[in-house]
Amino acid sequence: MKILIVGGAGYIGSHVTLELLEKGHDPLVFDNLSTGHAWAVPEERLVRGDLADKRLLADTLAQGRFDAVMHFASFIQVGESVSDPLKYYENNVANTINLLGAMEKNGVKRFVFSSTAAVYGTPDVVPITEVARLAPENPYGRSKLMVEKILADCEQAWGLTSVRLRYFNAAGAHPLGRIGEAHEPESHLIPLILQVALGNREAIAINGSDYETHDGTCVRDYIHVCDLASAHLLALESMVADGRSRVYNLGNGQGYSIREVIDTCRTVTGHAIPEQLAPRRPGDPAKLVASAERIRDDLGWIPRYSHLETIVETAWQWHRKQNAGQETPQR
Questions:
Q1: Taking 50 as the threshold, does the pLDDT of residue 293 lie above it?
Q2: Which residues pair with 287 in a beta bridge?
Q3: Catalytic center residues
Q4: Selecting from 2.40.50.140, 3.90.79.10, 3.40.50.720, 3.40.50.970, what CATH number does the domain 2-170+222-250 have?
Q5: Domain locations in the chain?
Q6: How far apart are CA 168 and CA 225, in angstroms?
Q7: Which residues neighbour 86 within 8 Å (Cβ) at sequence distance 6 or greater?
Q8: CB–CB of 231/165 below 8 Å?
């Protein structure tokens, strides 16, 4: 299949691109490189463009005869979404409308959407299932939920089929070290901890130690980025097979506390990794853990890298290589 991957040069998008290539598909990446990296995808498969550029977007879709579109081109920083909500609604919602409009004009009716567990807000019950109450607590989460509702409207209006994948905490790197996580600035827990082990940060901050959890720190569900990638391919194949829209959680179904993640990083790296207590972050729920039984049952998805130590090991290999100044291999 020929697939347009918007935001495909970013962390998750580049791993999905590699997964598609390895399975014999024909992906084309459309990315403005504001947070993605040209080195993360093959040069001949990259179109540098912005979803706000309606003409380039329309031209790209018109020449492609695409079977589907995958969307990873969203801003993801919760704190920034609170301080600058219009930035998030413009990019995450308005630009997605541009994309959907171009798809409609060109007859592309399959869409895989990178959504988020933030659509649930603070859950009533953990693990969280797909039928849980949708109550996002910040503009980031609300922007994602808005798009989910737009997709349902487009299905009714012009037959768009979509799979909405609600991620929990993506982590890790390609096990062969080909690509990995390279955000600037970094905000994800595991890379921040590994920066301490590499000597690039003095200590890791623990934001709140008085939550109602077994050790007082927040509990989160971590899923390896390559397992996310395999789920995207299964989602695409399911749409082709039966033409039905779906929504799935993507997580391991097991939660780890902040302290447990830090201890795992200490084991993997052999570094002491000093920690500092810091105030709670507003809106941080005590526990966010996925029930991913639906996608396991429906599509037979089985995470290959479900152990936290394995996730951390792949991330450590990647970040250690980058810290040593080694060039990222071109593909």
A1: yes
A2: 219
A3: 140
A4: 3.40.50.720
A5: 2-170+222-250
A6: 11
A7: none
A8: yes
User: Can you tell me the distance from the alpha carbon of 267 to that of 250, in angstroms, rounded to the nearest whole number?
Assistant: 26
Q: CA quadruple 15, 20, 24, 25: dihedral positive or negative?
A: negative
How wide is the angle at C-alpha 313 spanned by C-alphas 167 and 227, nearest 5°?
A: 30
Look up the pTM and report it.
0.93
Residues ≥6 apart with Cβ < 8 Å to 176: none
Cβ pair 309, 252 in contact under 8 A: no
Q: How far apart are CA 147 and CA 150, in angstroms?
A: 5
Is 88 exposed, middle or buried (CB count within 10 Å of its CB: 0-12, 13-18, 19+)?
A: buried
C-alpha distances in Å from residue 167, one per residue of 34, 151, 222, 266, 327? 21, 17, 9, 26, 30
Closest CA to 79 of 140, 29, 21: 140
Among 227, 196, 203, residue whose Cα is nearest residue 308: 227
Helix (H) or strand (E) holding 87: helix 85-88
Tokens of 97: 């409308």
* Gap between the Cα atoms of 181 and 119, Å rounded: 23
Pairing of strands 219-224, 255-257: antiparallel
Provide the pLDDT confidence category of residue 329 given band limits of 50, 70 and 90: very low
* Structure tokens that stand for 262 in this block: 């830090």
The answer to whether 156 and 239 are in contact (CB under 8 A) is no
CA 193 to chain centre: 19
Write out pLDDT tens, residues 146-204. 999 999 999 999 999 999 999 999 999 999 888 998 877 788 999 999 999 999 999 99
